[in-house]
Amino acid sequence: MEPTSDLKRVFRTTIITNGALVASLFLYAFMVELIRSQLRPFPGLLVSGLRNQTLRYLFFGAAIGAVVLVRLAGRTLPKVTPGEDLHLLILRLSRTAVITSALGELPALLGFVLFLLTGFTRDFYILLFVSLFLEFMYFPRLSVWQDLARERFPQQGI
Questions:
Q1: CA-CA distance, 99 to 105, in Å (whole number)?
Q2: What are the DSSP calls for 101-125, one per residue?
Q3: Could you tell me the CA-to-CA distances from 96 to 41, 64, 84, 150 in Å, in that order?
Q4: Which candidate in 23, 37, 127, 145 could, as Cys together with 107 as Cys, close a disulfide (CB 3.0–4.6 Å)?
Q5: Domain assignments of the chain as residue spans, ordered by start
Q6: Could you read off the pLDDT of 54-92 as tens digits, one per residue?
């Protein structure tokens, strides 16, 4: 199979996977609104105010950790090791894109759990926005993949 078609095929599969991960963010928002409307007012599963504030700090701290992980994964995972061929680079780019997208979903997931525990929708939507921002920033782009492949394997004719 020619390198360009292999790259585009793997890229298309990666886009579908990442698109499903982004769609799950909207599913979280739908579930929050459904719970909120059906159980109005929804106080959360924990009622203590002190615990709520502590949980907020913990969950927002974990979300910041997820942002750092996404940035690190986006930089370190696609590096080429000596002796690696083009096919392995393409698979590594795909794996990096899916891992980064999954890590980018973590703040929204943490926000959803925080909503279930405390009932605070504002916290959920803040963390959902962080996830959407990460997904937008690190969503795979074909031109970037092609540039990386051309830069590292100029003889392949991509």
A1: 10
A2: HHHHHHHHHHHHHHHHHH--HHHHH
A3: 41, 20, 16, 18
A4: 127
A5: 3-41+53-151
A6: 888 999 999 999 999 888 887 776 666 767 788 888 888
